[in-house]
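Batch job 17 of 40 flagged for manual review because the log was empty.
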Amino acid sequence: VYRCQRQGKTVFLRFTTPLRRTKAQIEAELHFLSHLAEAGIRVPHLIPNHEGQTQITLKENSHQYEVVVFSEVTGVHPTVEVTQTPKFLESLGALMATMHDISQKYEPQTFREHWFEERGLRHALEAAKTTSHLPMRKKLEKSIAWIQRLEKSPNTYGLVHADLGAMNMFVETDDSIGIIDFDDSCYHFFAFDLAIAIYSMAFRLKKPHFDELEQNWLKHLIKGYRRVRSITDEEIAQIPQFIDFACLRLFFWVEYHENLNTFHETQITHALQMKQWVFERLMG
């Protein structure tokens, strides 16, 4: 992703290889993004080229890329302090509920992956096959089996962002929240989106377990969510288990890239810290 200037405005130029996403998957992402924008959600707008295309295929020798240009979403990333305030959490909960309501009524042109098909989990499962951390592998297997048993309905399952952490949010001076980076969007349980928000905050603070503080964060998220959309007590009770699933996916995703030695040298320490945090949280 490159930050660029176009006609005096900041835009973001994204190149994606087929190894990461297919052309059809990117088309599905962009269609959903445009649908959210039309519904009033503060998300990036697609910038067309001079021929009116919002997605083009570029080839350079043996390399191929799907290229998209996004508008800037203004504001600042919420700080650790801001993300823990009831005001922010309730606003975020209401925003997520609005997005889920839009998703429930959304009719896609092409489809994104379901949660059990997405590449991050596929990589995690590949690493789990050869891991030396057998208790963690068992936890991952149990977590996946639990999700597979959950009953799906239009009220509980649909297209979600799936990565609603602070670095994918921008807060404006009017306290409105903008959302970027729909690259991980997939079909999942709506409760998982709420879990990811808690999981992301827990990671920033290196929380050792789901405790009273995290329960308080969740209480305010749900309070805001219920201003817009209903959510059952059963769904709320699932959220701690979805947090554990997100942790396990992260653990084995890191191990997958460790095995392939694909982390940039500047990111190795951070990746290992993420993995260690998950291990201590789930096994400590």
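Reviewer: the log was empty due to a logging misconfiguration, but the result itself is present. The radius of gyration is 19 Å. Unflagging and moving on to job 18.
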